[in-house]
Amino acid sequence: VQLQASGGGLAQVGGSLRLSCAASGYDFSYYVMGWFRQAPGKVREFVAAVSRTGVNTRYSESVRGRFTISRDNAKNEMYMEMNNLEPEDTAVYYCAAAPGIAGTTSQEHMYNTWGQGTQVTVSS
Prior knowledge:
Strand content: over 45%
Low-confidence stretches: none
Shape: globular
Number of helices: 0
Structural class: mainly beta
């Protein structure tokens, strides 16, 4: 079971980035997928999650209305479109998979598979 995150980089305040997470080695559609992030000196925090079918989504208050999470089960991929970026969005972003859950979850301990992280830096 592997997750590979990509798409991070440097963006200006107010700019946009699109993160991707490619999954392999398991039944992708069985897993709730989520994004977490960790800023320097801070604990890792929940950002967004998408249900197994992609119908239901959940966002942290800090990103709701600016970020959009989605998935393509046919491609075994998950995405997050990040718009109107703020300096506070600077962090390493991790994709993660939570097995066999109905709906979505923001609970980190429910996720048992993690990608390697991709750096997002927002500069002013």
